[in-house]
Amino acid sequence: MTEVKAKKFLGQHFLTDENIAERIVESLSPDAQRLLEIGPGMGVLTKYLIKKDGLDFHVVEIDRESVAYLHDHYPTLDVIEGDFLRMDLTALFHGCFSIIGNFPYNISSQILFKVYDNRDNVTEVVGMFQKEVAERVAAKPGNKTYGILSVLLSAFYDIEYLFTVNEHVFNPPPKVKSAVIRLRRNDVKGLECDEKLFVQVVKAGFNQRRKTLRNALRQLNLPLDRISEEILAKRAEQLTVTQFIEITKTIEPCL
User: Fold this and answer.
1) Helix, strand, or coil here: 48?
2) What is the tally of structural domains in the chain?
3) What is the CATH number of the domain that holds 17?
4) How far lies 39's CA from each of 83, 192, 196, in Å?
5) What is the SS3 assignment for 238?
6) What average pLDDT does the structure give for the chain?
7) pLDDT-derived band at 24, boundaries 50, 70, 90
8) pLDDT digits (tens, 9 = 90+) for 148-180
9) What is the pTM of this model?
10) Rounded distance, CA 95 to CA 92, Å?
């Protein structure tokens, strides 16, 4: 299997524009001390990141040909061969760290759910995503693209849509545009509610997003009579993080 075919099979495309690569790297906070790059491929970001002084830098790559290339071209680099989604991130770093990458489109949402699960350790994410995924993550309440990841991540991160990337800067060119976003951990240590129940409520609301909350939340057998009629008449995309937290706090004592 050729390098390009291998990467395409994994849902990733080679970034060929050095200016875009530098711009992504420059979007990382200058005070980042520990960094994990996901899916470095042929090292288009890696070659700039490895130059940063004093950075505890690791990369994780699942494609064997890319791993061999990285070992050959960056012999001092710590290359972890494996699946990021199966990794125990707390065992990799002692303390907090940042994540960067031109993320494979077919697992980009799963990467972000893993970031959410490791929110106490992941302080920043700078990444390239399919444009519609980036827009969804950065969306605000009332927007049609506002969804589960928008709510969960914005509860703990400040999210910025940085810039759009056109198709022609990749090899092979994808059929969609891409975008770079940045997540920076906010000051929220924990939510004022049961966080597992909060996730259930958010997911149930958006899994039937065309329905009002009264109908969307019915599947959870929750005490909906404790929630105001005004809130129950809304759809999930109309609610802020704070409102989802308030719903969870309201029903929590009855469960």
Assistant:
1) helix
2) 2
3) 3.40.50.150
4) 9, 36, 30
5) helix
6) 91
7) very high
8) 999 999 999 999 999 999 999 998 888 899 999
9) 0.91
10) 9
Which among 155, 185, 215 is the end of a domain? Answer: 185
CA R_g for the chain: 20
Rounded Cα distance, 193 and 179, in Å: 33
Looking at residue 161, its amino acid is Y
Domain that holds residue 241: 195-254
b/e per residue 11-44 (b: at least 16 CB within 10 A): ebbbbeeeebbeebbebbeeebbbbbbbbbbbbb
Residue among 81, 70, 64, 45 nearest 6 (CA): 64
Alpha helices in the chain (DSSP H): 3-9, 18-26, 46-49, 64-73, 89-92, 108-117, 131-138, 148-154, 195-207, 213-216, 229-232, 241-251
Q: Name the amino acid, one letter, at 92.
A: L
Nearest Cα to Cα of residue 38 among 92, 82, 93, 94? 82
Dump the DSSP string for 7-25: HHHTT--EE--HHHHHHHH
The whole-angstrom separation of Cα 43 and Cα 75 is 12
Contacts of 53 (CB under 8 A, 6+ apart): none
Token pair recorded at residue 78: 């710590």
